[in-house]
Amino acid sequence: MFNRTSLQAAAALASISLLSGCSVFSDSESAADQRIVVGTTSSPTTLDPAAAWDNSWELFRNVFQTLVAFPTGSTIPQPDAADCAFKQGSSSRVYECKIHDGLTFSNGHKLDAEAVKHSIERIRTIDADGGPNGMLGSLDKIDVLDPQTVVFRLNQPDATFPFVLATPAMSIVDPAEYPADKLREDGKLLGSGPYVLDSYTEGDKAELTRNQSYKGFAERKNGGVTIRYFKESEPMVAALKKKEIDATYRGLTAAEVVDLQADKPENQSLQLVESTGADIRYLVFNAKDSTAAKPAVRKAIAQLVDRDELVSKVYQGTAEPLYSMVPKGIAGHTTKFYDRFGSPDAAKAKSILRKAGITETVKLDFWYTTDRYGSSTAAEFAELKRQLEASELFEVTLHGKPWKEFQKGYQKGEYPVFGRGWFPDFPDPDNFIAPFVGKENVLGTPYVSPEITGELLPKSRRESDRGAVTDEFTQAQEIMVQDVRLLPLWQGKLYIAASEDIAGGERALDPQTVMQMWELSRRTSW
């Protein structure tokens, strides 16, 4: 019959392992030998970690290793390819890693300290557009002390650096396969992780088999995984119901979730695992655009947007309103935008514009991606347009583009207002503030805030107790509300839909909301 597992926000980030302690699933040899087919609407944009700061990480986590990682149930980095720690007395500025003995890449080449240095330094050397070089701002240099020891020397105290190293962006690559000064372009991928990528067809599928030389924390509960990439969620759900795939991750629309929850004959052999995740959606205002650059325009939009109605109409309870860039479940979460603007009010929005001397209808172009965050995105922007135009203060023109084209456009600063989603690199408030501010940020639209980047973030990064940085991030969010360069909209819930004979869905998402394919298996007992 239909099953629905519900996890709270903390479960997605910390407690999820408790749910599996008394599992009734068998991990017999027959189950471990079987392949699992998983569908998603989120395909990689690149096969080279040096160029990826996006959902390409889903594939990387399953094929590469990092020095430290987030096994299921952890909220702080744990050993993966190495044992790491800040040197005592270094004030969080010297981070040393001892690489585990006997590690090799799947081609037999040794994974050593030189390979680690090569992997991280090429990110900085290549500095790919949309790549993860921005995550390494605190890194000064890397020293190799011996074949098993690598030391990261930072230019400032940074207690979040281990979290950065735990992201799939910092995947360890083979120097013989990945050039130091350019991206790998042969369409292949090779690592030392739980699986080997046997074949990959862009936009179609990836075939993963067990890496026989793997040594790490992942306990693989299947014989391999086929990932099928769908452009739309509708055919993905249809494939699940026809048992052409075993499970889905990323891309289910709200309507599809509600439909899967319904008591229907076609749902009787399905299950839905729900978690309140830390992924968020928000609008970005480009200060280089003559209209979006006006604070009054941005504040008037903030005064008009009705998040409750947006979530109710478009997401039907599968998301919740968000009033700060730091979501619920993460230390430092606030409701600063609600505190400042309160409930939607057209009269107040009109007053904001008139006081700034804006008397004519404000015309703006809103851009969104058509194939990155699920099919509900178009409906979301249609609702935003409706809300703003109902005030008779705005005229909004909508534009949608596939992700790769959309990404190129916002990186060039072409869009006045555009929508983005953020899946956390790691579960820390720093990761919901730092990536979006500074001259070079992940948005392609410089957001200069000296108080945030020069005072609050450095101060917070000196604190190793990440639960003790609330004050700094509360102040940072207050500044962001005053600027309204970013407008948080909603916080999502994560869903894995699967056939009833698939186990491990409640353990599959790590704190970065990245799918750990090795957790999925086929039940052999009921």
UniProtKB/TrEMBL annotation:
Where in or outside the cell it occurs: the entry states: Cell envelope
Keywords of this protein's UniProt record, alphabetized? Signal, Transport
Q: Which PROSITE patterns match?
A: PROKAR_LIPOPROTEIN (PS51257)
Domain Solute-binding protein family, which positions? 78-441
Its main subcellular localisation, reduced to a broad class, is other
- Which InterPro entries does this UniProt record tie to the protein? Peptide/Ni-bd (IPR030678), SBP_5 (IPR039424), SBP_5_dom (IPR000914)
Q: Which domain of life is it from?
A: Bacteria
**Signal peptide feature range:** 1-26
Name the family: Belongs to the bacterial solute-binding protein 5 family.
This protein's name: ABC transporter substrate-binding protein
In which organism is this protein found?
Answer: Streptomyces roseicoloratus
